[in-house]
Structure formats: C-alpha cells, structure tokens
C-alpha cells in the first residue's frame, strides 16, 4: 500500500520469513519500485523481528518518515532512530 491507501506499484524482489522453536520469528520484504522522492534508490524494504506473542522487537524499513528521523530508520521496541548511510557501506 502507498500512503494514499492504494496498492504500491512495483515488483516484489525478495520475501522470506522463519520461526524459531521459542516462537520468535522474522520477516523480510523488498520491492523494486519506481524511483521517486520517496524512494530515490528504487527500493522499498522492511525487516522485522517479532517475539513469541508477535510483539515487535526490531524493525528496519524505509516505508515513511512519519517519525522525523529520516527515510531509512530502525524501530527497537518503542524507540525509532535514523540509520545513517555509512551503515550501508
């Protein structure tokens, strides 16, 4: 979905997930999307690690900048912080 509620144009290029015996699980998605101001790299991604009760523990994404920390950011429990581009190098 895009921020207007409509489907996001693009092609899914990666999707995977797994669950651990303790009940924790992870999910990863990547989309090839048209380059734009929102997605200058032409890539939309998310990775999340969830605890046994599906509580979000860790997430990385570039879905939006609603948190005023930059497009690329990390959610850790209830904290959100920017991911600096040098962390990708």
Rounded mean pLDDT is 85
How is the main sheet built?
6 strands, antiparallel
Please mark out the parts with pLDDT under 50 across 5 or more consecutive residues, or reply none: 1-6
How much strand?
A: 35-45%
The percent range for helix content is: under 10%
Give the distance, in angstroms, between the N- and C-terminal Cα atoms.
Answer: 29 Å
Q: How many discrete structural domains?
A: 1
Which strands sit side by side, in order, in the main sheet? 1-2-3-4-5-6
Strand element count: 6
Structural class: mainly beta
What shape does the CA trace take? flat
Q: Compute the number of helices.
A: 0
C-alpha Rg, in Å? 14 Å
Order of helices and strands: EEEEEE
Draw up the topology in text.
Elements: E1 11-19, E2 25-32, E3 43-50, E4 56-61, E5 73-76, E6 79-82
Antiparallel strand pairs: 1-2, 2-3, 3-4, 4-5, 5-6
Structure, explained:
By secondary structure, this protein is mainly beta. The chain has one domain. It is built from no helices and six strands. The chain has strands at 11-19, 25-32, 43-50, 56-61, 73-76, 79-82. The protein has a six-stranded antiparallel β-sheet, with no helix packed on it. β3 (43-50) and β4 (56-61) form a beta hairpin. It is flat.
């Amino acid at each position: 979905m895009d921020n207007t509620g409509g489907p996001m144009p693009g092609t899914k290029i990666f999707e995977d997930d797994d669950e651990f015996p303790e009940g924790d699980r992870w999910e990863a998605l990547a989309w090839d999307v048209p380059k734009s101001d929102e997605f200058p790299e032409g890539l939309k991604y998310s990775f999340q690690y969830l605890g046994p009760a599906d509580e979000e523990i860790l997430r990385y994404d570039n879905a939006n900048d609603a948190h005023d920390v930059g497009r690329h950011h990390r959610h850790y429990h209830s904290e959100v912080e920017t991911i600096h581009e040098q962390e990708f190098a």
